[in-house]
Amino acid sequence: MKMLVPPEMHATQSKMIYQMNKYCTDRVQTRKLQIHKTIIEVCRVVQDVLKEVEVQEPRFISSLNDYNGRYEGLEVVSPTEFEIIIYLNQMGVLNFVDDGTLPGCAVLKLSDGRKRSMSLWVEFITASGYLSARKIRSRFQTLVAQAVDKCAYRDCVKMIADTTEVKLRIRERLIVQITPAFKCAGLWPRSAAHWPLPQIPWPHPNIVAEVKTEGFDMLSKECVALQGKNSAMEGDAWVLSFNEAENRLLQGGFRKRCLSILKTLRDRHLDLPGNPVTTYVMKTLLLYECEKHPREMEWDESSIGDRINGIFLQLISCLQCRRCPHYFLPNMDLFKGKSPGALENASKQVWRLTRIMLTSSRCLEEL
Q1: What is the pLDDT of residue 169?
Q2: pTM of the model
Q3: Which of 148, 176, 308, 348 has the fewest beta carbons under 10 Å from its own?
C-alpha cells in the first residue's frame, strides 16, 4: 500500500534535505578540513615527542600510527583540543576487576601474587597487587617532559603544569592530552552488562556481538566520578572508555553525518563557559536517539532534521535535570563536576538554537 503524502510535505522534506546538504558542504566540510590539517600538525609533534620517550623507556612504545590519514587512538575533543591514546602492552598476568564500587572505572590486579616479577610493569604494582594507573601516568609524564625539551619541536611545544594528566600546548593555540591505556578485547565490563536493553530492537544482535568482542579500553586519567572520594583506589583505578564500540554503533544510515552536523553546531554555538556541552555529550545523546528510533528508515536523509531536533530537545531536558547518563554506564553522569550555573546557561542557549531549528525552514542558513 502506498502512503499518500501531501505534496507540501514532500516540498518541505526536499527543502530540508537541500538545507542539510548545503550545511554539510559549507560548514561541516570546512570544519573537517580545518581539523584534518590541525591533526596532521599535532601528530607530527606528538610522534616526535613519543619517539624520544621510547628511546628512554621502551615499554612506552608509540601506537600513534597513520593509516591513510587516520590515526588510531586520536580523539577530537574540539577543533583546538585533542586526546591521543597510547596503547601499552599488558603481558597477560593481570586480571580485570570491575565490582561497581568505582563508577566508570575498574582496576587491574595481579592474577597471582607469585607472578609479580613476570609483569612488564612490576614497579607500578602496589603492595596489594593492583597496577596503579596514577603511578604509570606519573612516570610517563616525567618521560614526556624530558622528551619535550629534547625533541625537534621544542620551541613550539610546552608541557602544561598543575595537572596529573600528560598535556602539551602546541604553538600556544592547541592542546593535546596523551593518555596511556590498555586494550581489553574479548571482555565486557559487568557495569555495562545491562546493555543492550532487551525490549529495544536496536542494535542488531550481530552488531552487539561484534561490539562485545571488540571490547573497550582502560585509560589512565583523572576520573571526575571519583574526585572528592579520596579513596586509596582512586589512584589505582583506570577509566573505562567505549570509544570504538560507540563508533561501531554509529555506522549505517546517516548517523555519522548526523554526528558531524551536531559537532559543527556545538562548536559554532555551544562552546560555552565551563564546557557543559562536549562533543561526547552530543555523541551520547545520538546513541540514545538510535534506541528511540531503531528502524533504519528513521535514519535516512529525509529524517536527519527530525533526529537532530529530537537530540536537542533531549539535551535541554538533561541540562534542566542536571544529569546526562553515560550510554554504556548509566550510573555515570557526564555532567558531574559541572556547575549548576554553566548547565543553566547552556540550557538557555540550546533552547534558543532549538527554537530557531523548529520554527524556521531556513534555519541552517542562520546557523
Answers
A1: 97
A2: 0.93
A3: 348
